[in-house]
Structures are given as C-alpha cells and as structure tokens.
Amino acid sequence: MSGNQKLTQLIGHIYDATLDPSLWHDVLDDTAQFVGGSAAVLITKDPTARRVCLIHEAGADPHYLELYRQRYAALDPLTIGHYFGELEQPLAVADLLPYEEFLRTPFYKEWVRPQGIVDFVGAALDKTATDVAMLGIFRHERNGVTDEATRQCMRTIVPHIRRAMMISRAVDSNQAEARSLKDAFDGFGAGAFLIDVGGRLVHANAAGHDILGAGEVLRVIDGRLMVADADGDRTLRATLASVVQANATDVALALSDSDGGRYVAHILPLAVEHSRFGRGPRAAAAALFVRKASLEGTLRPEIIARTYRLTPAELRVLLAMVEEGGVREVSESLGVAETTIKTHLSRLFEKTGAGRQADLIKLVAGYASPLAGRA
Q1: How would you classify residue 335: left for phi > 0, otherwise alpha for psi between -120 and 50, otherwise beta?
Q2: Residue 183 lies in a domain
Q3: pLDDT in tens, 303-330
C-alpha cells in the first residue's frame, strides 16, 4: 500500500471513529505511526488547576499515565504553552521552552526520561475558558526529536482529527437529546406510538404496549399499527398519506373496544427530517396518542363550559356522555328522561358544532392532557 493509500485509509478510519468510539485506540495507534511516534493521546489539559483528562490513548504506558494524572500533570512545563497555542498548529518541546531547560526539569527527569521519551509534539483541537483539548504524539529515543517531516505529518492529520472530535461531540449531543426525548415519551400516561409513513410501528411507550397487549383497540399486524375499528383505521391511513404530502394537520378520532369502552386518539404529524426517532425509511412520521375517554387527569370542565357557553345542565350531559355512552345510559345515570337528554344533546350539537356523539367525545378529550400520569 502506498503512502497516499495509507493516509486515505487512516482518514477514513478517523471519521469511522465518530460513530464507533471503540475505534479510537486503533486510529491513534495508526496516527502515531504516521506521524512518527511511539504513542498518541487525546487529552484535555487545564493550565490553571493543573489537571488532565485522558479521552483516548494508544501505545502509552498505563502506569505512567496514572502517575501523570496523579502527580506530574501539575509539574508539566508544557501545559501553558499548549493552552495558548494556535488551533491545529503542531508544537514540540523546543517550540515552548529551550530544550536544555526542559531536560533540567523534575518533570523530564522523573517522568519523561524513565520512559525513553525525547519529545512530545501536540496540537490544540479545541479550547474553552479553562482547558484545551489536544492530540499529542510521544517521540521515543528511536524516533528522535521532532523534525519538519513530523510537523508536516501533524499538519496533514490534525484537521481531520479535530473535525472528527467535533462530529463526535455533535453525535453524542444528539444521542443524549434523543434519550431524553424517549424518556419523556415513555413517561406519558396515554398510550403513545410512533409510526412511519407506511404505518409501521417505530416505538411504543409502556402504556401503548398495554393497549397493544389487550388487542381491543389497536394491534400490530406484520409490523404495521392497525386500528381495530375499520373507520378509525381508514382515518389513520388517510392522515399518514397527508403526512407524505406535507399538508397534514392534527387529527382526533374516536375509538371503541369490543365492550363499548370509548377511547380518543390524537394523531400528531411529525416533520420526518427533524425526527429524533430514526432516520430514513423507518423515521417516525407521526405520533399517535390514545387514552380512554374519561374525566380523570387534567380535564377542566369549566373551561369547556366557558368556551362553548354551556349551561350547567348541558355540561353535565356532555360529561356524562363521555363516561356513560348513549342517551339511554346517560338518562339512567342522571335520572333524567331520555327526551330531556335528547334536548340537551341537540343544544350541545348546535353550540359546539359537533355532528355526532363521537365528535363530542373528541371535543372533551381535547381538553384533557395526554401527559397525565399512569394509573
């Protein structure tokens, strides 16, 4: 393999390490060989507190690394120079202080010389107000002190390592954000489902798995989330189709189980390109929240009454409709004649604009937060 091929391969491995941190050891080992050194480290150094944090290393003696962390970081005469060095610019010992002076330091005599090291060439990758992150290459006696060829190799490879570290930081940040979002999603009291544009289930929270386990309202068939009710399933498919066309809005639908239990589902389209729950064909295109229609949780009936100017009797019938179901059940529950219930129901349709009892259930559910805690 030619020198250019080796360099191309090394650069490729550097960027591979942004997604697989376990590769950094081999990357640094190859980097040390490319630059001409016995070991390589990625570290952060704090010149004020005289502390060091080892990020990755290859070829260094673990015993001496620990000694450095515990004692010799505070004695390292190169740290301040590294902190004030320009980003990506290689700095050897002789660039920071006279080499003969370095040889007289306790740091050299007690930590450097026993390892057979004669030089250290480093380059700053990033800085904060308190520390500097850097790549460092140890030069052993067999390598000799840093020469121009070594500096040129550092100038070639350091920009790639710096970009790779920045990418790694962004990846870690996005992964942390995704984990936080997933934790919040999994804590919803409502059944919560993430589905792709084809209706395939991407993720479900604990309450969602409970609903799927019952199989009365929702189920998964061949990986696709299905609504047991045919009308509800058609509405779900139509909403997903509108997501693809980028003209979807929030949709609510009433669902029921085989025992007549009433549920309300809210479909929230997601911008696929911004989804934190997957990329490509399996990215989440919509979130589906499903909860049993009830008056529990964070429902505020007075807000509904004030919004639609309902009388106390009308509000009472509306809320009973959610809890009990049809006219006969509400009549029995409230001890009011069915004709009276029908009169109130007609006024409710007029004031709310609803056309069916199912629409009234969706209306009430819209005032209850799906984030209420699980029972």
Answers
A1: left
A2: no
A3: 678 778 889 888 888 888 877 777 888 8
The pLDDT of residue 60: 95
Residues 85 and 142 in one domain: yes
Query: Which of 129, 124, 175 has its CA nearest to residue 154?
Result: 124
CATH number of the domain bearing residue 226 = 3.30.450.20
Lookup: tokens for 205: 């929270």
CA–CA gap between residue 370 and residue 299 (Å, rounded)? 10
Q: Is 41 in contact with 68 (CB distance < 8 Å)? A: no
Enclosing domain of residue 24? 3-178
HEC string of 141-173?
Answer: CCCCCCCHHHHHHHHHHHHHHHHHHHHHHHHHH
Q: Find the largest Cα–Cα distance for the chain.
A: 105
List pLDDT tens digits, range 161-211: 998 888 877 666 656 656 666 666 666 667 888 888 788 888 888 888 988
Angstrom CA distances, 270 to 169, 180, 203, 241, stand at: 26, 18, 14, 13
| Cα–Cα distance measured from residue 291 to residue 22, given in angstroms and rounded to the nearest whole number | 43
pTM: 0.53
- Dihedral sign computed on CA atoms, order 214, 216, 218, 224: positive
